[in-house]
Amino acid sequence: MSLVHDAIILAAGMGIRLRSMVRDRPKGLIEIDHETLVGRSVRLLRHAGMTRITIVTGYAAGQYEQFARDQSDIQLVVNDHFATTGSMASLAVGLECVQRDAIVLESDLVYESRALHTILNAPAADSTLTSGPTGAGDEVWVDAPGGRLRAMSKNVHELCGVDGEFVGITRLSWSVGQAMLRAFGQFVNLHGHARMDYETGALVAVARSSPISVQLIRDLNWGEIDNEQQYERVVRQVWPVASRERAKIMT
Questions:
Q1: Is 26 helix (H, G, I), strand (E, B) or coil?
Q2: What would the pLDDT profile of 103-128 be if each residue is shown by its tens digit?
Q3: pTM recorded for the entire structure
Q4: Considering all CA atoms of the chain, what is the largest pairwise distance in Å, rounded to the nearest integer?
Q5: DSSP characters for 208-237?
Q6: 137: left (phi over 0), alpha (psi -120 to 50) or beta
Q7: Are 108 and 28 in contact (CB under 8 A)?
Q8: Terminus-to-terminus CA distance in the chain, angstroms?
Q9: Is the dihedral of CA 156, 162, 167, 172 positive or negative?
Q10: Which distant-in-sequence residues (6+ apart) come within 8 Å of 22 by Cβ?
Q11: 28-86: pLDDT as tens digits
């Protein structure tokens, strides 16, 4: 049984590629069948045993304040510099507020609940989730010989091997989270800006000295929504499975 009870949802981004669809809201608050993407993740996280959920906001942060109203297990923190920084800056804000092990996930995901079960029950305290190829476009490929993270890239030709597609759900021990914060600080000092990705940047950097396990669910049904094509794929292929799962949980 996992001892992780905290989750961090990264929800600060502007969702520029979806602006034609969601001009009035952050993409984590897109609704499908009257349930928002973040609302669905919160429901599944609670069902998996999370007792505190930290949402890192930025763009249209006030809408998350309305979403979280009267939900005492949700705390909101803000990346004030969301427009000029990368995802690691948002994760840094979350990690500074969550001083223990945590599940980290992105706000624009739809996934089967077994994704959380797998990552929470992984034998390694530091694990990230991968799937087989989705064909969704804009994939992040993972090189993980022997099940240990070595590299990630959107360019498959930059990798020595491909062992899965990054899902966007990661379990971090407190110590590895702190190591990622240090890697972020070094990046900012070296480059003079904070546009570092948490996965291809900080997580890969830390993996050189701290083992990060890669959990593969080859047939996982999941999707992220970064553009209109991905939205259509999620609605057609992913959400119907999610809806059947919801019915099972509710009965």
A1: coil
A2: 999 999 999 999 999 999 999 999 99
A3: 0.94
A4: 54
A5: TTS--EEEEETT--EEE-SSHHHHHHIIII
A6: left
A7: yes
A8: 24
A9: negative
A10: 15, 29, 30
A11: 999 999 999 999 999 999 999 999 999 999 999 999 999 999 999 999 999 999 999 99
Query: Cβ–Cβ contacts within 10 Å for residue 140, how many?
Result: 18
Cβ–Cβ under 8 Å, residues 178 and 184: no
Query: Per-residue DSSP letters for 64-103?
Result: HHHHHTT-TTEEEEE-TTTTTS-HHHHHHHHHHH--S-EE
Q: E strand or H helix at 11, and its extent?
A: strand 6-11
Q: Which residue has the tokens 């949700």?
A: 74
Tell me the per-residue pLDDT of 156-182, one tens digit each, with 9 for 90 and over.
Answer: 999 999 999 999 999 999 999 999 999
Domain 6-250: assigned CATH number: 3.90.550.10
Half-sphere exposure of residue 65: CA atoms within 13 angstroms, side-chain side: 7
Partners of 144 in the β-ladder: none
How far is Cα 38 from Cα 7, in angstroms, rounded to an integer? 12
CA nearest to 222, candidates 106, 51, 124: 106
For the record, the structure tokens of 81 come out as 């510099």
Domain ranges of the chain: 6-250
Share of the chain above pLDDT 70, in %: 93
Question: Which residue type does 11 have?
Answer: A
Interior angle at CA 128, CA 79 and CA 32, nearest 5? 65
If phi > 0 it is left, if psi is from -120 to 50 it is alpha, else beta; for residue 168 that is: left
Reported as type and span, the H/E element at residue 6 is strand 6-11
